[in-house]
Every structure is written in C-alpha cells, then in structure tokens.
Design goal:
With 586 residues, this protein is of the alpha+beta class. 49% of the residues lie in helices and 17% in strands.
C-alpha cells in the first residue's frame, strides 16, 4: 500500500516544471499581444496626462422653477457618464459641485473633443409636424426657386412587405413671402389647416377660438416670432423656440440638403425621444446618403409614430413632413407618403462622427436639465508628473526596504521572493497596458498608490509560505517533505488573506467614484495576480530548488539552516525492553 503512495508523491513533485512553463508562456503571449496592439504603455488619467476641465451650470427651464434639484442633477451626471463611456474616453470624471454645477474632467485622448461636445448637450428629441417653412435670412438670395429639396427620408422597418421600406423624396414647399404680413398670414393659415396633432394635443394646444377677423394672442405671438426669426443669424438660432412646451406650436431653424438655413413653424410634439428604445449609426450602402442614424421605437412610441405619419400622409407639402427636432434645432424634415411604424432613420449629410454622436445621445437619453458652460480649463500634467515622480521614489524606497529585509532574514530564499516580485510586476504592467484600449482603464495617481500597496501584499504571501516551511524544518523534517507539508497550510492562509483584500477592493470600487476607483481597481487586480504568481511560480520554483544541494543540505546562506532555526532531532520510535527470560524455566 505504501508503494503507490510514494509513486503519486513523486509524480506530484515532478510537475513544478509544467506550471513554470505555463506561466512563462502566458507572460510571453501577453507581452507579444501588448507589442502587437501598439499599446506599450498604460493610458494615463487626467492628473498624469493633462486634459480639459469643464464646469457646467444648470439653467432653470421656463415654467419649472424647481427643476434644479438633487435628483435631476444626479440623473444628469449618470447620463453624462454613460455618454462619455460610450465614446470610449478613459478615466473621464463627472461629478456635482454645489447645488447647480457639474464638473467634467476629460483627459487627453482621441475622443476627448467629442466628449466635450456631448456632455453638455441636452439631447431633447421631438418629432413635430411641419406647418410651414421657408429659406431664412441671407440664404434667400441663394434660393433658386420657391421650393427646396431635403435629403432626409423616413423609413419603416415593419415586417409587412407592403410597407417594408417606403421612402419618398422630401420635397418641402416653401412659402416665400416678401413682407411680414404675408408671413404672419402663412402662420395663421397653417395653424388653421393643421389637423395632424392627436385629439388630446389639439385640445390642449390649438388656438382658442376668437371672433372672426381677430387673432388670438398665442397665434399672434407665434406669427411675430416667425416673422422676426433669421436662421442665418447664430444668435437667433440659439433662442428660436425658447420656452416652448412639447404640447405647444413653436418655431425652429434647420439646414436643408443644400446647406441653406430654413425656418419652420412646427406643431405640437407627437413623439418624444423617450419613445426611442435603441439607436445606432450605420452606413447606407444602398444609396448615396452615406451615414445615417437608425432608431427603434418602444411599443408605445411605435403606435404614436404610426398615428402621426398616417395623418401627415394625407396632407399636402410641406404639411406632409415631420421635423426631427434635437435641442430646438431641426436635424431632419422627411416627408411621409404612408403610415409608418416600428423603426425610423435620420439620413442626410452626416459624417461618421456626426452620426455616431447623434446615435450616442439618443441611446442614453436626454438630460433632465439644460446646461451652459461656465468655464473651460486646460489641465497640464506638470503637477501630476511631480506627484508621480515623488510616488515612484517612495515606491522604490519601499521596495528596496522589502528586498533588504528579505535578504537579511531569509538569505537564499530571498532570490525566490525577488523573482516572484519581478514576475508580478511584469504581469501588472502588461495587463495595465492592455486594459487601457480594452476597457478604458487609465492609470492615475491613486492607481499608482494601489500598485505600491500591492508590493506589501505580495511579499506577505511569500513570508507566509517561507515561515510554514521553516516550521516544518524545526519539527525535524528534511526540506523536500517540509515544502510539501507546508504548502497546504500556507495556501489556506494566503487565499483567506487575498480574499479579504480583494473583497475590500471590490466594495471600495462599487461605493466610490472618480479617482478612488482607480486605486480600488489596481488593488483588486494586483491581489488576483498575487494568487496567480504564488500558485504558478513561487510554489513550483520552491519545489524545484528544494532538490538542489544548496537548499536541501541546509547551507547557512540558504535561509533554511536547521541549526539556526533550532530544529529538533528527528523523532524515532523506541521499542520497550522485553522482560528477561529464565532459560531454566524455558
């Protein structure tokens, strides 16, 4: 029975080489992947790489004096975070400051400019019927005819083959006018003729009946706004439709397919951005439209969209068009030939970046508040570089003290500990470099602190293992059995210790925000690597070296000298002396 057990033990001790080869192959593969990807250094956070710090101040909406509150501010922070993360910007920080300010820190990177443009964009989307439209301001002189064509189109992706992909050229009739009186008459006529809104919307937003020959105040105000609106003027575009509620008619500006600015009178909103379930940017290979944004509606949104397009299909141009209005600006004004449902798309002269930006904003929803940029500051990496330099010096001093302690106290065993620390450092560096482009991880100062703290955690695992081996030698065992008997006890202690460290890092990562998460992430990563290194490198290497005469014989400089450790002599059984036998009696 003893022979098979001895064979299994010898077989188990012959496997350390496999574990070492396995971890070396893993290191070589990860390092090769790092060089192949071209990301040979970790991505840096704003404190180390520099970047842009933006202060956004919330604005009160007309008719909503209490809109600026903690709930809406927290919602805005969450949406901004998702927008920036959707662009792949690493280590961006979005947090509130005071009661009405949001601070956005964006590190330097390929998408930082896009992130700056998107964080403060409200992205309130509405589908409104077009009541009347014309080329505005200075662009009138460039208008070749009183009608213009838009490159936008509406598409239905319903399963019914009869309406699978209807589209029509959006030929919007412009109502040119030479005087303010004719413009005002156009608005009045459009409001009277408008039958597209739903019954509920019409009841709440239609002009109040007035005596014949008079105009109600709401219509008069809309007439005046439309007459005075010059969409070729940036200031007018910025204030067009300010204060208008979704259920009210409003004026807006937008560019047509020829790049000219048009002004619109739009009816009440029939479909809102909250009715969109999914949005994405795709390249249209079937036409010359190029990039477009596709939208899938919720079940409720699909019904609303079908209802409004069914009504618009019965109208004459331009009242058979609906305007897709984003933050008060018309981004598309497709015409409708029949009722549509299910999905829609926005197409036009989009670049890839513009289409992706719009889809990103629609996907993550509109901000509950409007914001203005109070300040934009460029952050340099000089201060962070100085702090990093000081931190690296502190880390080097700490590492040197750890190595000095290991050499003095453990002597030859310190070579195993130092080699394990080097393997752990290589793995940590390579993984940080690869995780930058993979998940957006960026190295900041707290993350560097986490890596420095991990030195102590890793060294603690070696010390636990070495002390267990020494305890076995003190009991009188030789080195090779001492290593195998010490490992199960050391393994349990190491796993419990690393589990506690990883749990603390996970909790810290979940409950904190910003840079502290960098510390927690690095601490958790290095804790996992500590387990990998101890199991696949330190233990196998110790098993191999235990076969060497320098360690097995207990050389004074091996750190395992039985005399220095106060080892007991080997325990041996002694037989009790038997009673003398009387030969005569025998």
């Amino acid at each position: 029975m003893a022979a098979p057990k001895k064979g299994r033990s010898a077989s188990a001790q012959s496997r350390p080489g496999r574990a070492l080869v396995l971890i070396l192959i893993a290191i070589a593969a990860l390092t090769g992947g790092m060089f192949a990807s071209g990301h040979t250094t970790p991505r840096l956070g704003i404190d180390l790489a520099g970047g842009t710090s933006i202060t956004l101040t919330a604005k009160n909406e007309p008719g909503q004096p209490n809109a600026i509150n903690k709930t809406n501010m927290d919602t805005a922070v969450d949406i901004m975070n998702r927008r920036v993360n959707g662009l792949g910007v690493s280590e961006a920080e979005v947090q509130t400051q005071g009661s009405d300010n949001i601070i956005v820190n964006i590190p330097k990177g390929t998408n930082s400019k896009q992130a700056r443009e998107q964080v403060g964009t409200t992205a309130k989307l509405y589908f409104r019927p077009v009541l009347t439209t014309e080329v505005s301001g200075a662009d009138k002189s460039a208008t070749p005819s009183p009608s213009t064509s838009s490159s936008s189109k509406a598409t239905d992706k319903a399963t019914d083959k009869a309406t699978a992909s209807p589209s029509s050229s959006s030929s919007s009739s412009v109502t040119p006018s030479a005087t303010a009186t004719s413009q005002g008459r156009a608005v009045t006529d459009a409001l009277k003729a408008d039958s597209s809104p739903s019954a509920s919307s019409s009841a709440s937003s239609s002009p109040t009946p007035t005596p014949s020959g008079s105009v109600d105040p709401a219509t008069a105000k809309l007439q005046a706004a439309y007459t005075a609106l010059d969409c070729s003027n940036k200031a007018d575009r910025a204030t067009a439709g300010d204060g208008a509620k979704p259920a009210d008619p409003t004026v807006a500006c937008g560019q047509n397919g020829s790049g000219q600015w048009q002004k619109y009178v739009l009816g009440p909103a029939e479909v809102a951005g909250t009715d969109i379930k999914k949005a994405g940017a795709v390249f249209d290979t079937q036409s010359a439209a190029g990039w477009k944004v596709t939208m899938d509606f919720t079940s409720g949104g699909s019904k609303k969209f079908a209802a409004i397009t069914g009504k618009l299909a019965q109208q004459q141009p331009p009242q058979n068009q609906f305007a897709i209005v984003l933050d008060g600006e018309v981004v598309s004004d497709p015409s409708v030939a029949q009722s549509l449902s299910g999905s829609a798309e926005i197409s036009g002269s989009f670049t890839q970046t513009e289409a992706q930006d719009l889809a990103n904003m629609l996907k993550y929803g509109a901000l509950p508040l409007s914001f203005k940029e109070s300040s934009v500051t460029t952050v340099t990496a000089a201060l962070g570089g100085e702090q990093l330099h000081a931190g690296l010096i502190a880390g080097a001093i700490g590492l040197a003290l750890v190595i000095l302690y290991l050499v003095i106290y453990y002597r030859g065993l310190s070579a195993i500990a130092i080699a394990s620390l080097l393997v752990s450092a290589v793995l940590t560096y390579v993984l940080m470099a690869l995780l930058g482009p993979a998940i957006g991880f960026a190295l900041n100062l707290p993350a560097v602190c986490g890596a420095i703290v991990a030195i102590g955690i890793t060294a603690d695992s070696f010390i636990v293992f070495f002390e267990r081996i020494r305890d076995e030698i003190r009991e009188g065992r030789t080195l090779r059995p001492a290593v195998e008997r010490a490992w199960p006890r050391a393994r349990r202690t190491i796993l419990v210790s690393d589990f506690v460290s990883f749990l603390a890092a996970a909790v810290l990562f979940i409950v904190t925000v910003g840079k502290v998460q960098g510390f927690a992430f690095t601490l958790g990563l290095t804790t996992v690597l500590d387990v990998v290194v101890v199991f696949f490198f330190t233990k196998p290497l110790m098993t191999l070296l235990a076969r060497k005469k320098f360690f097995a014989s207990g050389h004074p400089w091996s750190g395992l000298d039985p005399k220095r450790l106060g080892a007991k002599p080997p325990l041996r059984r002694t037989r009790r002396a038997s009673a003398p036998v009387d030969t005569k009696e025998a």
